[in-house]
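As a warm-up, study this chain.
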Amino acid sequence: MAHILVVDDEEGLRSFLAEALEMEGHRVTQAPDGVEGARLVSTQSFDVMLTDIRMPGLNGLELLKLARTRQPELQVIVLTAFGSVSTAVDAMKSGAFDYLQKPISGPTELRLLVARALERRSLLALQDRSQRDEHTADPLSYGDPVMAPVVHAIEKVAATKATVLLLGESGTGKEVAARRLHQLSPRADGAFVTVNCASLSETLLESELFGHEKGAFTGATARRRGRIELAYGGTFFLDEIGEMKPELQAKLLRVLEQRSFERVGGSLTIEVDVRWLAATNRDLRPMIADGSFREDLYHRLAVFPISLPPLRERTQDLLPLAEHLLARVAKNLGRPGLELDDEAKDVIARSPWTGNVRELLNALERAAILADGLLLDASLFASPPAAAFVAAAHGESSGGSRTLADLEREAIVTALEAVDGHRKKAAENLGIGLRTLYDKLKRYEIE
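Now compare it with the structure written out below.
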């Protein structure tokens, strides 16, 4: 469990808080004033600190600033008397996680608030590890000239406050680009918080973005800070922004324009200090025309648009990227030393990868699981639609004159003919998703 520091000059309240948290299994250290609290945060490690604001010697705001210097990952909850919410808001601007109003009626809200503070601490730690382990290791490019303008644009805009809209097909690396923007920005030490707008219902997405007050709706048993608040001082990434419903788009536009918002069911205005990034795999212009996406929001988000090319256009990046991803797969599977043989490399180099990096990663993971040894051969990349790829890799096409794309087109046409044009059945027989099939039909101009 967590190590929690409770700092308050009221012995009765301090003991109540400590007992409530110890009953949850946490280890609690108490300090009777800010001076002792400062000594403790300078000599011991804590996960969460609860501190009163008004204390003799060293007040809560001063202790908060010191604690953030000594332990930047420490989550601080300030205790404030009723009617002093503005002071608590000042504390949150200085880095506090949240506030708890006195008098405290019972332990339930306290425990929930501490649990969410620990959740945020874990989230930040996970993001930090992922940035070190994966995303910092995922280069935007291995030197393909097609990617040079993208890399240059990201490096130029990262140092500014400009809102960036990342465009491109699914799986082209828009989140990798967003994280790179964050890492190169002056906010790199702040949180990188992301929300996928396609993964949540409209109601859940609103609460996830803005948070809610206790009693705002059924099940809202305590106040919850939204992800925009959690990103204060850092970067907020809205993925799949094209999936957001128009009503919520209007609320987001207000936040972008006024740099403030209210939690669901609340009236307290909360200031916003984040760097905005957004991404979509959809063409927003037709959506503006049919009214499903707000034009004013588009212009707010597309201050600096960056288009990421699909993997099939990044031919010089393909094999180095495949080898990099295979190394990651090997590490995750506990099978170091996995390699691609020459025929497998040929299959990968000649495949269209309409699903881009995500499809390539899935293919590598599937091949690694199926492989008996450490050398992956071309046959391991053969799903039903990929049999033609293997044939091509073995030089079994007509004198080598037919491309892999020709062979894939034939496989799709044959599959459609076998089921009288029923596309869902054809996709199932080919072993690919229906959306992937539609992408391929469009690419190969198959009616």
